[in-house]
Recover the amino acids of this structure.
């Protein structure tokens, strides 16, 4: 039996203010073969089952197990006899990490949140019989915010994919990701970043200056441009950026509006404080987010937050970066498979079988490029398409989101169709019409526009 990925949505231990957590980055032995890795995953599943089992009606631990790109292949060579088509699609082109942020090694990521140190100890002891499969393990620690505030003193986790969280988090091949391997259904992509926070400058700022960097009031977390105490779900779009600056963290990471609201991630990180040998401390955030597509993380992080030209030229990068001296230390991306009664990630080893259908969907991936065919950081949302048969439209218009993705309504298979960009945006050449015949339940079509003149926002 399968279901959505385990441990990802908050459960009793994750919600507890007394919880703490550990991230284990496990590198598997280079010579491990398919039976060897299946033994490892089977042993790990038993251990996860023991540690997360209810005791007197309470769950003391939540565990997420993810697989990184190096689980599937190293240097282009597939591992464990896996077919190339079994790798999560977005591992082929990962979001870039900021300069100075290294890729942390590891093939399997284990993210544990627990309310009892004894349970973490039980888990670490239980790993011992599996250590023959491991080359190296790196441990990172963090703790749940006892007062729901990040280390700079602001309430965190307020606007966090609160509506439709399942849709934000879990991959659905019946949506705009039909080209992902069958086994990824119900799984989720994970992003991990260890971010140092340096408060030397922060502590010299006034409360008003700190609030301008975040975009929310320090006491109740309400947005600066709405009345104090306004609940998150009643904030509405930004009328202007007079009170909540365009460079504030929430303006850059959550720009609002029907189009941008479609791009969301679910943040589930933990702060950390590490004691150094000289008695000083290093602190920050073990940032973890789950999303059905790494495109959502990439859009928020690279196209919006760190891009100085978003939402308009001159906006500057996210003000939080400088105000809290954020330093991106290391990170990785991973995929959390859906629940499987056999053992964790069993589906990865199943032969791919596509269901037989008579109708399908055309999935659009938008790319905007300059005269030298280089990608341009421009808004990818709002391009409209329609499918035609014998020059007659057979679908309603459908539009891309800010990640440049769109999915047509159902169209017949095995017939000659034409995909037309019926709603191009100003400043771009329209994408040429594309002849399309579906011989499987979906086809992915890249529609490319050339920029004709600089576009507002994104520095395009
Ligand atoms: C140490 C680093 C960071 C700190 C201290 C921090 C803190 C905060 C705080 C206080 C909020 C406002 C409260 C809330 O809505 O939860 C917030 C919102 C948010 N943060 Fe961060 N954050 C950090 C890094 C990041 C990173 C790296 C990303 C994305 C890759 C990110 C994405 C977001 C998003 C999407 C929101 C919601 C914005 C909205 O829709 O209003 N944050 N963060």
């Amino acid at each position: 039996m399968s279901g959505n990925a385990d441990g990802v949505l908050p459960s009793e231990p994750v919600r507890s203010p007394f919880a703490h957590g550990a991230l284990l980055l496990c590198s598997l032995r280079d010579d491990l073969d398919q039976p060897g890795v299946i033994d490892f995953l089977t042993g790990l599943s038993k251990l996860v089952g023991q540690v997360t089992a209810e005791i007197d009606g309470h769950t003391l631990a939540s565990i997420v197990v993810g697989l990184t790109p190096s689980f599937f292949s190293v240097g282009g060579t597939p591992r464990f006899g896996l077919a190339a088509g079994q790798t999560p699609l977005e591992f082929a082109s990962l979001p870039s990490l900021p300069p100075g942020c290294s890729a942390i090694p590891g093939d399997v990521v284990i993210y544990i949140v627990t309310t009892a140190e004894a349970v973490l100890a039980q888990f670490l002891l239980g790993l011992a019989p599996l250590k023959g499969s491991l080359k190296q393990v790196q441990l990172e620690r963090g703790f749940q915010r006892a007062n729901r505030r990040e280390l700079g003193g602001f309430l965190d986790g307020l606007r966090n994919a609160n509506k439709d969280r399942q849709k934000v988090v879990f991959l659905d091949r019946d949506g705009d990701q039909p080209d992902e391997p069958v086994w990824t259904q119900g799984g989720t992509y994970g992003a991990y970043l260890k971010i140092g926070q340096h408060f030397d400058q922060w502590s010299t700022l006034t409360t008003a200056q700190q609030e301008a960097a975040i975009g929310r009031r320090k006491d109740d977390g309400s947005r600066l441009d709405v009345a104090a105490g306004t609940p998150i779900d009643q904030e509405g779009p930004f009328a202007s950026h007079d009170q909540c600056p365009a460079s504030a963290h929430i303006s850059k990471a959550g720009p609002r509006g029907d189009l941008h609201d479609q791009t969301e991630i679910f943040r589930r990180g933990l702060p950390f404080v590490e004691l150094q040998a000289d008695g000083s401390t290093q602190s920050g955030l073990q940032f973890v987010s789950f999303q059905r597509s790494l495109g959502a993380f990439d859009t928020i992080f690279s196209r919006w937050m760190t891009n100085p030209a978003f939402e308009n030229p001159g906006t500057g990068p996210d003000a939080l970066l400088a105000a809290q001296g954020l330093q991106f230390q290391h990170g990785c991306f991973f995929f959390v498979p859906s629940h499987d009664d056999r053992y964790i990630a069993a589906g990865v080893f199943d032969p791919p079988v596509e269901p037989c259908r008579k109708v399908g969907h055309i999935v659009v991936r938008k790319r905007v490029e300059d005269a030298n065919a280089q990608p341009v950081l421009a808004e990818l949302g709002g391009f409209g398409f329609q499918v035609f048969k014998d020059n007659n439209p057979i679908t309603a218009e459908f539009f891309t989101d800010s990640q440049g993705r769109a999915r047509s309504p159902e169209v017949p298979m095995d017939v000659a169709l034409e995909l037309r960009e019926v709603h191009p945006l100003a400043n771009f050449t329209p994408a040429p019409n594309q002849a399309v015949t579906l011989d499987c339940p979906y086809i992915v079509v890249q529609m490319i526009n050339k920029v004709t003149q600089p576009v507002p926002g994104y520095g395009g």
In short: The chain has two domains: 1-353, 359-450. The radius of gyration is 23 Å. The first helix runs from residue 12 to 15. Residues 1-353 form one domain.
